[in-house]
Amino acid sequence: MPKKKASSESPAKSKRDYTVVGGLDKRLKPISLGKRSPKKVDRFEEKEEHPRVHDLVIRKGKGKKLESLDNVEPQITKRTNNDVLLREIHGICFGGRPTKSTQVKSDLLAFSGVVYEDDKKDREKLEDRIYKRHKGDIQEILAFFGQNPKGEKEDLVKRLADFLESPKASKDTYEVASSSSKKRSSSKSPSRKSPKKARKKKDPNAPKKALSGYMFFVKDARHDLAKKHPSEGVTDIAKRLGQAWGKLGKDEKRKYQDKADKDKSRYEREMKTYNKRGK
């Protein structure tokens, strides 16, 4: 029998079993028909653009809630959540912990006093938070709560800390220049400067003003503290003096208050004589 010629064609039944190999040689190459591995699908989880601000847990303090104080509640409710003063007070009351802007007012209305874990350390932290503010800001906050805004900065810090430990209603009203309105006005274009008023010259023969109990304490303690901390400046020493005054007991403070009472009597006596001479 005559031999059959070998076929140059591949025995494949269907072209689907082949793929074309690129290049000049365009012969077909068989594809391996194994199991297909599953294709990985990348899944993208939605990420929040801004981290969620957790709601504050407001614990019960020693005083009354601000919402129950007739002189404070209306002042909070009439302001906006973005009010500069409200946010300033919120930072002091809650240690600067973040909250939603829509909750600033509700947080403050529910506030009934700073709750301490460690009385001494937490009191110092509270005074530090207050002391970092400008004196004008502290005066504005004191007036907001119906507390006396007059005095040295150290006295104001202690007074505000005492109120925030145990908030109480007050019938007194005080007015101070708003520091937040000053900030806004300073950003505007400068207006014509009004002529400066001539200051009254202080009479050198006028009696020296009476000192407060705290100032007598400062006179006693400043030198020792400055010697103990030679690398610290005036501001740091003043801060330490305020903290040391806050730690004094009633009996120790009484000693300085007695000196202040005597000095007040001296000033009133000398002022009477001085005024008679002026007439």
**Biggest sheet overview:** 2 strands, antiparallel
Structure class: mainly alpha
Report the helical percentage.
Answer: 40-55%
Gyration radius from CA atoms, angstroms: 38 Å
**Global shape:** globular
Please tally the helical runs, counting DSSP H or I stretches of 4 or more residues. 10
Kindly, what is the distance between the CA atoms of the first and last residues, rounded to a whole number of angstroms? 158 Å
What series of H and E elements makes up the topology? Answer: EEHHHHHHHHHH
Percent of residues in β-strands: under 5%
Count of strand segments: 2
Which whole number gives the mean pLDDT? 78
The strand line-up of the biggest sheet is 1-2
Point out poorly predicted stretches.
Answer: 46-53, 184-191
Describe this structure in words.
- The protein is mainly alpha-helical and 279 residues long.
- Among the domains are: 66-186, no CATH class; 213-278, DNA Binding (I), subunit A (Orthogonal Bundle).
- The protein contains 10 helices and 2 strands, in the order E-E-H-H-H-H-H-H-H-H-H-H.
- A two-stranded antiparallel sheet has the order 1-2.
- A hairpin with a 7-residue loop joins strand 1 (18-20) and strand 2 (28-30).
